[in-house]
Specification:
Chain lengths: 89, 366
């Protein structure tokens, strides 16, 4: 499913994460992962993000994750919301 | 629509009273009210405004939090909300203006510094540095070009014999010349047309590259006041100086080294006060050998500014604003004397009809 529009979910508040999805003209996924705990959790955040994108089968998008120390369940919730919004007409 | 954050209510500020509260809050934090804002948000504790921030095109600015609510994540809430609204409008390259003392606050929120004037203004961008990828594209472009190149930055609204004379002079004084055309589409002649007329107007010159100015040269992020008719008041003049300093710092710190540019060429500015302030600041910042006061590394080489007297015809300086005035007055035979054949041909084409009509009806500075 192609990403249709630029959307966000979440926030930059402490213990939250801001997920932004932007359409790309090509059929690929670009990731940009930032976190205040990138050393400890950077790989895990990337894995969760890539898995959710794969399950949702979206393409043509830049996924920007700005983590402010969110729990994994928060990250999943934010990603799910952003993905839903990005493909809704 | 209102949302709450930890009991604070978010509102878009409209009323005189709300805007007055906001001005007081900005002033208490040493900030001034930004110009040309499109969306102003506030967070309220009851009736008291405790935080504010504004979105002006793609730039967040005027962000302030009341002392009593510092350190509670209120700034994060307001910045998140502004980003969300910008993204909803399809804006994805987002900038932020602040004062240089507050840079680290916003770096903690995922912004990275583009340029800062010590004890003055700072420009940050959202997410991982977009300027890095922009600079690598410049470096790739300049890789097989000579050192000690020159640059001109021009709007060309539209391309005149004055621009032609400046570029001709510059290209004969440097081994290679970069002609950067202001990309922001806020002039009467659309960027697409301005760019094409520059290309056509210099097609016979071999040692130059005409290129898009990009988001870091005279854009709504680096120099928003360039596109607004300036007020004579002091605050507005201060804003022009502040933006000009940032724009020129970015050129010296990032763009000139990437393109191996050691010379920048400008025409003297007889008409436009904003451009003449810009030229004056450019001479100071680009050529400074003592770099500490401007906040950049001493290793960054200076760029020599060559200010060339405006090209004149019959004792009158040729400028694009003159050309637009003549179009407005319906004086087309005079226009023909001030522009090269390439521009003249376009002005007479069908494609030009709506642009000419817009010029006749507008009193815009650009």
């Amino acid at each position: 499913m192609r990403v249709l529009k630029s959307v966000t979910a979440g926030s930059l508040e402490s213990s939250d994460v801001l997920v932004t999805i932007m359409p790309l003209s090509e059929d690929r996924i670009e990731y940009d992962i930032e976190s205040i705990v990138i050393k400890q959790y950077g790989r895990r955040i990337r894995k969760v993000t890539e898995d959710m994108v794969e399950i949702a089968k979206i393409t043509g998008a830049r996924i920007h994750v700005q983590d402010r120390g969110a729990l994994e369940c928060t990250l999943r919730a934010r990603l799910e919301t952003a993905i839903e919004r990005s493909i809704a007409c | 629509m209102s949302e709450t954050f930890f009991g604070l209510e978010e509102r878009i500020l409209h009323t005189k009273d709300e805007l007055a509260q906001r001005e007081a809050l900005l002033t208490s934090r040493g900030l001034t009210v930004p110009e040309g804002e499109e969306l102003v948000l506030g967070l309220f504790d009851g009736e008291q405004l405790v935080a504010t921030g504004a979105l002006v095109r793609n730039v967040l600015q005027g962000i302030a939090v009341d002392m009593s609510h510092e350190g509670e994540g209120v700034a994060a809430a307001i910045v998140s909300s502004l980003i969300k609204r910008a993204v909803d409008r399809g804006i994805t390259q987002i900038f932020l203006y602040t004062v240089s003392e507050d840079i680290s606050r916003f770096e903690n929120l995922g912004f990275s510094k583009v340029a800062a004037v010590p004890k003055g203004a700072a420009l940050l961008e959202w997410g991982s540095a977009g300027i890095e990828s922009y600079l690598s594209s410049l470096k790739a472009l300049a890789e097989d070009k000579p050192d000690h190149a020159g640059a001109v930055v021009i709007n060309c609204n539209p391309f005149t014999l004055g621009h032609r004379a400046l570029i001709e002079y510059a290209s004969s004084h440097v081994p290679w010349l970069y002609v950067l055309v202001v990309e922001e589409d806020r002039s009467l002649f659309p960027f697409r047309v301005r760019y094409r007329l520059v290309q056509e107007g210099v097609a016979d010159l071999r040692n130059l590259t005409v290129m898009k100015g990009g988001p870091y040269i005279i854009s709504s992020a680096t120099f928003p006041t360039y596109f607004i008719r300036p007020d004579a008041n002091e605050a507005s003049q201060r804003a022009v100086r502040m933006h000009a300093s940032l724009d020129v710092s970015i050129f010296r710190m990032h763009i000139a080294p990437a393109l191996k540019v050691a010379n920048r060429f400008v025409g003297t500015e007889p008409y436009c006060p904003t451009t003449s302030v810009y030229n004056e600041i450019m001479k100071i910042i680009l050529q400074a050998r003592e770099t500490e006061a401007f906040g950049f590394d001493a290793k960054i080489p200076p760029v020599t500014v060559h200010e060339i007297p405006r090209f004149e015809i019959g004792g009158t300086p040729v400028s694009a604003s003159k050309v637009r005035d003549m179009i407005r007055e319906g004086n087309l035979s005079e226009v023909q004397k001030l522009v090269p054949k390439t521009t003249w041909d376009w002005l007479k084409s069908d494609e030009a009809v709506p642009v000419m009509e817009r010029i006749r009806q507008s009193d815009s500075r650009h």
